[in-house]
């Protein structure tokens, strides 16, 4: 059973929509430190807010990040993903120029692919626990 605190309302609907997203760095290079991950979370929270979407959980490792997003039905998940990846890539490369050294001529932080899974079967508490237990590099 879903947690009732996650129920959201729109003008003409009531909804609980969560997606588990995973973004992998270009060439799976292990480039993120703890400071990078902290800044990525801030950037991604800001992008989510622009989409009226909640970033419920965030965590990552040196070469990938996990996001649990609570989104309204009017948001196309593919557009949210494109914005999350595009904005975070641009800002991270601006703020951390050393990241560019890992990507030769590609000039992209993220791989072109991503994982998106609807979260409905597993209780959110279990998914949150999984994301929280991902190791962050130091």
From TrEMBL:
Annotated Pfam families: Y1_Tnp
Residues annotated as domain Transposase IS200-like: 14-134
InterPro entries, sorted: Transposase_17, Transposase_17_sf
Signal peptide feature range: none
Top-level taxon in the UniProt lineage: Bacteria
Protein name, as recorded: IS200/IS605 family transposase
Lineage: Bacteria, Bacillati, Actinomycetota, Actinomycetes, Streptosporangiales
């Amino acid at each position: 059973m879903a947690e009732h605190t996650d129920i959201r309302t729109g003008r003409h609907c009531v909804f609980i929509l969560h997606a588990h997203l995973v973004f992998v760095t270009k060439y799976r290079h292990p480039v993120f430190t703890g400071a990078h991950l902290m800044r990525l979370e801030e950037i991604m929270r800001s992008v989510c807010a622009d989409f009226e979407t909640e970033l419920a959980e965030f965590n990552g490792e040196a070469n990938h990040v996990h996001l649990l997003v609570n989104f309204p039905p009017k948001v196309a998940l593919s557009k949210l993903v494109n914005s999350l990846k595009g904005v975070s890539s641009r800002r991270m490369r601006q703020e951390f120029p050393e990241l560019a050294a890992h990507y030769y001529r590609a000039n992209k932080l993220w791989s072109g692919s991503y994982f998106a899974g609807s979260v409905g079967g597993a209780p959110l508490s279990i998914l949150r626990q999984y994301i929280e237990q991902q190791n962050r590099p130091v």
